[in-house]
Amino acid sequence: MKTTSAVDIQNYLPHRAPMLMVDLILDIDANFVETIFLIKEDNIFVQNNVFIEAGLIENTAQTCSAIVGKKYFFDDNGLENENVNVIGFISALKNVKIHTLPKVGDTIITKADLVSKFVGDDYTLCTMSCKSSVEDQILLECEINLFIQKTISVS
Fold first, then answer.
1. Mind telling me which SUPFAM superfamilies this protein's record contains (predicted)?
2. 107-119 sheet: strands from edge to edge
């Protein structure tokens, strides 16, 4: 499934405000994702008008998990699965390079390529290569390992 128009990230992630660090998915397929995020003044990761390192890493993790998350939130025909809950966490950050920090009002573009993926019955482990930027200025580069697991929905 490849998108041709922007998609609300909330269709792919369990995150909600104030922990949502991605606005829209600009492009996604099985091996690549690109997102956009406008840094607002009231963001929990803003200090002194600067979006701090933890915010950049969370933006990157949410961008990357969209590729894995779509497996749980959508069936093979692209139809949304109902009552799906997932948990996920960063299991490793590798080769992290933070070149500069963005400011309030900046729009971050984050791109990630799938390096490897292992799929179990109800969980997925993956490694992604990531890069965030504002216009032509690189903010962050890293590899990130994620663990995403489907959980039982209690009604």
1. Thioesterase/thiol ester dehydrase-isomerase
2. 7-8, 24-28, 32-38, 107-119, 123-134, 137-151, 85-98
Give the CATH number, domain containing residue 49: 3.10.129.10
- Please state the pTM of the whole predicted model: 0.83
HSE-up (13 A, CA, CB side) for residue 21: 23
- Alpha-carbon distance 120 to 150, whole Å? 10
pLDDT recorded at residue 13: 60
Strand stretches in the chain, DSSP E:
7-8, 24-28, 32-38, 46-47, 50-51, 85-98, 107-119, 123-134, 137-151
Closest by CA to 127, choosing from 110, 144, 140, is 144
Q: Distance (Å, rounded) from C-alpha 155 to C-alpha 146?
A: 27
User: How many domains, in total, are found in the chain?
Assistant: 1
Domain that holds residue 30: 7-151
pLDDT band at 3 (very low <50, low <70, confident <90, very high): very low
Query: 48 in helix, strand or coil?
Result: coil
- What's residue 30's pLDDT? 84
pLDDT value of residue 16: 54
Q: Is residue 14 part of a domain?
A: yes
